[in-house]
Amino acid sequence: GENVEQHPSTLSVQEGDSAVIKCTYSDSASNYFPWYKQELGKRPQLIIDIRSNVGEKKDQRIAVTLNKTAKHFSLHITETQPEDSAVYFCAASWPGYQKVTFGIGTKLQVIP
Amino acid sequence: DAGVIQSPRHEVTEMGQEVTLRCKPISGHNSLFWYRQTMMRGLELLIYFNNNVPIDDSGMPEDRFSAKMPNASFSTLKIQPSEPRDSAVYFCASSLVSGVGTGELFFGEGSRLTVL
Fold first, then answer.
1. Which residues, 6+ apart, have CB-to-CB distance to B62 below 8 Å?
2. What per-residue confidence (pLDDT) applies to A81?
3. Which residues contact B47 (CB under 8 A, 6 or more apart)?
4. Would you call B16 exposed, middle or buried from its count of C-beta atoms within 10 A (0-12, 13-18, 19+)?
5. Of B11, B40, B47, which Cα lies nearest the Cα of A98?
6. Which A residues, 61 through 100, put their C-beta within 8 Å of a C-beta on chain B?
7. Chain B contacts in chain A segment 25-54 (CB below 8 A)
């Protein structure tokens, strides 16, 4: 089955700086890579996703990049704000199969 | 739509007792997932259903766990007998899976289970 590794497990940045979270996946057939944000005590919510037919996707201060050859993908958050503090999960899924496998999560702390 | 609805939000029980967690998915969604979240293991998929049929239950830890989806608007996850190591937050999520594959997972607020 699919295995998703995520690092770092914790990340502290100063407000306004950028944050990068990296993930690798094991199954080359995976073609869907979502990122979820979970605030303390809340449910995970999708913030951005990318499919394997593109290499990069942006949404305001958030961007995701995908390197299919190396089987890794990354989340980039620019101009971080205190409300970006949360746990971020990467995930992977492969075609025709609905199972979504999550990474262990990265706890991001943005220091004002 | 009210989103995915889970109950109870909190459950405290004693070892050996039966626990039933409930989930109402978003109307129109055709897939339902049960996840367990712990600090050590993150979000683990226990089981998922497509059109009310269990597709993959390989994540169910052992026979003490069972899940059902009798219709498109209701699912249960049962633990019998419960053990302290089952303490975790259990999330239900639903999605609409189309021809392009997996869609966004919409999570419920979770059921926090504490087994004493």
1. none
2. 97
3. B33, B34, B54, B56, B57, B59, B60, B67, B77
4. exposed
5. B47
6. 89, 93, 95-100
7. 31-32, 34, 36, 42-46, 49, 51
**pLDDT digits 0-9 by tens, A86-106:** 999 999 987 766 788 999 999
pLDDT one-digit tens code per residue, B63-95: 999 999 999 999 999 999 999 999 999 999 999
Distance CA B71, CA A75 (A): 37
**b vs e for B76-105, b when ≥16 Cβ sit within 10 Å of the residue's Cβ?**
ebebeebeeebbbbbbbbbbebeeeebbeb
Q: Which single residue is written with the structure tokens 């019998």?
A: B80
Q: Which residue is closest to B99 within chain A, CA to CA?
A: A96
Tokens coding B2: 């009210």
Residue B63, CB-side half-sphere exposure with 13 Å CA sphere: 0
| A86 chain-B contacts, CB cut-off 8 A | none
